Amino acid sequence: MPAIVERPAQRYVAERATVTIPEFPRIADRLPPLIGTLAARGVALAGAPFFRYRVLHPGMRFTVEAGVPVDGGFEPEDPVFTGELPAGRYVLDTYVGAPDGLAAATASVLEWGAAEGIEWDRTAGPDGEEWGCRLEVLRSNPREVPDPAQWVTDLLFRIAG
User: Fold this and answer.
1) What's the whole-model pTM score?
2) Exposure check for the chain: N or C terminus, fewer CB within 10 A?
3) CA separation for the pair 82, 94 (Å, rounded)
């Protein structure tokens, strides 16, 4: 069952792309080189990697960031950039399973929120639904947990206000 949690602001580095579901590996595959670059430069990770959904476009297209939380200063080179996940109240739900089940897990969280009267941090924008902060936090390292059915992903959706 989802829970409401408080989260502090968190600095991160990321790359961004607009993709469809079949194109999602194009952004997902950016995480390993991003983590490798940080490690090579001695930048410590401050948490698990994530996907941040910025805009949900019509036609099942998404503007999404592949990001990694970091502490301290790091000035990346394009196309990598720095950002900050906003502090606030979030709905947290943990999903265990392969990525193909994430859409249903997300729908379940959104339905739960609607039933609870939760107002999400999202607005209608010119290109689609813009989210203040909507995350899939990747708690499992596929190198350590090779079976996708065992992967753990935290779904975090920022609450308005």
Assistant:
1) 0.96
2) N
3) 26
Are 12 and 82 contacting, i.e. CB atoms less than 8 angstroms apart?
yes
Task: Measure Cα distances from 123 to 3, 60, 89, 130, 131 in Å.
Answer: 23, 17, 17, 5, 7
The CB-side HSE value for 158 (13 A sphere, CA atoms) comes to 21
Looking at the structure of the chain, the number of domains it has is: 1
Q: Which residue has the tokens 């600095």?
A: 11
Other Cβ atoms less than 10 A from the Cβ of 36: the count is 10
Instruction: Residue count of the chain, please give it.
Output: 161
One-letter amino acid identity for 121?
D
Residue 114 tokens read as 């609607």
Structure tokens given for 24: 């999602």
Range of 95's domain? Answer: 3-158
- Measured between alpha carbons, how far is 104 from 96 in angstroms, rounded to an integer? 12
As a whole number of angstroms, the distance between CA 153 and CA 18 comes to 21
For 73, phi then psi, to 5°, come to -85, 135
Task: Please report, in tens digits, the pLDDT of each residue of the chain (161 residues total).
Answer: 899 999 999 999 999 999 999 999 999 999 999 999 999 999 989 999 999 999 999 998 999 999 999 987 778 888 999 999 999 999 999 999 999 999 999 999 999 999 999 999 999 999 999 999 999 999 999 889 999 999 999 999 999 98
